[in-house]
What we know:
- The chain is mainly β.
- The protein has two domains: about 5-100, Beta Barrel (Elongation Factor Tu (Ef-tu), domain 3), CATH 2.40.30.60; about 110-175, Roll (SH3 type barrels).
- It is built from two helices and 14 strands.
- The strands form three sheets. A six-stranded antiparallel beta barrel has the order 2-3-6-5-4-7.
- The longest helix is centred in the middle third of the chain and has 5 residues, at about 85.
- The chain is elongated and about 70 Å long.
- The two termini are about 35 Å apart.
- About 25% of the residues are buried.
Amino acid sequence: MPLRAVKQRRQRTRSARDGFRAVGLVSKPRGLRGEIKIQLLTDFPERFDVGATVFIDGVQRAILASQVDGATAHLRLEGIDGRNEAEALRDALLEVSDDDRAALAEGEYYLDEIEGCTVRDEDGAEIGTVREVLQPGANDVYVVARQDRADLLLPAIPDVVIEVRQTERVLVVRVPPGLDTDQPPAPTDSSD
C-alpha cells in the first residue's frame, strides 16, 4: 500500500490560527438567509455534517444545514441570519481544533506531518528536508530540498520510504539507483 498524505488543499488567503486546522474557505454568500458557499480544504466532508461545529473568525458556530457537492459546500451557520452577515464572512477560514483532527489509517499522514521532516538514508546520513508534498496521481511525491544540490523527487512508496518516525520528524528512505541525478545509474548487465 503506498504511503499517502491526506490532502489539505492550500488556502489562497491565509493560514489557520495556531492550534487549529483550516477545513474550508468562504467563497461567497448564497441567498438571503445567511447561507454561505465554501471551498473544502479537507478530505473529510463529514466535518460539515449538521450538528458539527466549526470556528469562523474565532467564533465557534454550529452547522444548521449542509449540502456538500464535490469540492464545495453550502452551509447555514448558527448566528449568521442574513446576507450582509454572510457577505462579511467572504474569504474567512472555517477552522477546527487540532484536537479534532480525524484519525488516519496506518500509512496515512497529514501533509504537515511530512513537510519539514528530515530525510535520511538507511545508514543515517542526512539527505535533506521535505519541502513539499506533490499529489500528482497514483502516489505522492516528496520534494526533498538539499543543500547546494537540486531538489530530489522521491515517490512515496514503501520501496522508497522505509520508515516514517513521526515523533522525531524523520523519514528513512532508500533512494533507487538512477533516481538521484547526482548519483551514477546502477550498472546494467550487458551479458544478454
